[in-house]
Specification:
The protein has 364 residues and is an alpha/beta fold. It is built from eleven helices and ten strands. β4, α4 and β5 form a beta-alpha-beta unit.
């Protein structure tokens, strides 16, 4: 099965072709009922709008939508050419149905539906977070991963710990009660004048900094809940930066030290909650997905936890941590292999707000 995936939920235009085949090995099938497929990326293309939105310090929805319109069709032509495939070779078309920016979602959905109507191909809308959640399973060593497993979804808009009991069977164990971890990275970088997007910049500056110079809070770290909170951390960074500016001591070393302190605080909270989830559920497999999953300090900390707790931690390749078309094609292929019913071409809606718990398989 070859699936064309289209991702336009925010500020990346992603297109990919992924080839999937069902798991047939009896050993794989016996490992707790894994996702049920092997995948191979045939071609992919991604256009980031970072430079477009950098001047505003964040994503401007109208600009994002217009840029998706400009980029999407050429990117589809590009991946088709890279893979050496024509439309008769495509078995299904997938797009991000939600959540995300309404206008941006409509661009991808409209083109996907038009292509499905024109070519007669099955079409399926995919939950953006499910794409992230399942993307680590593309790794060769993870494609036979059995259910259940835990998932840390951590990005600019989401910070959640999920229990995954099967495809479309997701239980929310904890989530942020205010700001996401990625937003805390972005806002802190903006306050420090480090550039946009903030996560990679904080990580880069932190390598030169002393995380112990500034004492920043770890919200909800010792609470019994698995929920997160990062609004207080952002406020603490604002207060410290204002003091440094008033005393004329916000130099490059101070920026590096503050970046290191911010990164340490966020990594401490995320890793502690993951360890707690492992203890509470007894599930010893953790999948990490989302843009913040590319943070090297977080990866190192979680790998350390994996050794201490004798559990398995699976990360997506760094290129698949950001929004991309591969994860949408892969998730769609797994659903179709599992018997998911396709949509009717030309009849669609997008869901800017869409709980992941509302994504049960709809059998054909």
């Amino acid at each position: 099965m070859v699936v064309l995936g289209i991702e336009t939920s925010c500020d990346e235009t992603g297109v990919a072709l992924v080839s999937l085949s069902p798991a047939t090995n009896s050993t794989e099938k016996s490992r707790g009922g894994g996702p049920g497929g092997h995948g191979r990326v045939l071609a992919q293309a991604l256009h980031s709008q970072i430079s477009l939105h950098a001047a505003y310090g964040g994503v401007v929805p109208e600009l994002a939508s217009r840029d998706h319109i400009l980029r999407l069709s050429p990117l589809i032509q590009q991946v088709m050419a890279q893979a050496g495939l024509a439309w008769p070779n495509i078995d299904a078309i997938a797009y991000t149905e939600g959540p995300g920016l309404a206008g941006a979602l409509l661009v991808g959905a409209s083109l996907a539906q038009g292509l499905a109507a024109a070519t007669g191909k099955p079409i399926i809308g995919i939950h953006h977070l499910e794409g992230h959640l399942l993307s680590p399973l593309l790794a060769q060593e993870a494609q036979a991963l059995g259910f259940p497993f835990l998932a840390l979804l951590v990005s600019g808009g989401h910070t959640q710990i999920m229990q995954v009991d099967g495809l479309g069977e997701y239980t929310l164990l904890g989530e942020t009660i205010d700001d996401a971890a990625g937003e805390a990275f972005d806002k802190s970088a903006q306050l420090l004048g480090l550039g946009y997007p903030g996560g990679p910049e904080i990580g880069r500056w932190a390598q030169k900094g002393d995380a112990k110079r500034f004492d920043l809070p770890r919200p909800l770290l010792k609470r019994p809940t698995l929920d997160f909170s990062f609004a207080g951390l952002k406020t603490a960074v604002l207060t410290q930066v204002q003091k440094l500016k008033q005393s004329l001591r916000l130099d490059d070393q101070a920026r590096a030290d503050m970046a290191a302190a911010v990164q340490a605080a966020i990594v401490d909270v995320l890793s502690a909650k993951c360890r707690k989830a492992i203890h509470e559920t007894g599930i010893r497999r953790l999948v990490v997905a989302g843009g913040v999953g590319a943070n090297q300090s977080l990866r190192e900390r979680l790998q350390h936890i994996a050794q201490e707790e004798d559990c398995q931690i699976i990360f997506p390749p760094p290129a698949l941590c950001t929004d991309n078309g591969v994860m949408i094609a892969w998730a769609a292929g797994l659903r179709l292999l599992a018997g998911q019913a396709s949509q009717t071409a030309g009849s669609f809606n997008v869901k800017p707000r869409w709980p992941l718990s509302e994504t049960a398989l709809r059998a054909s």
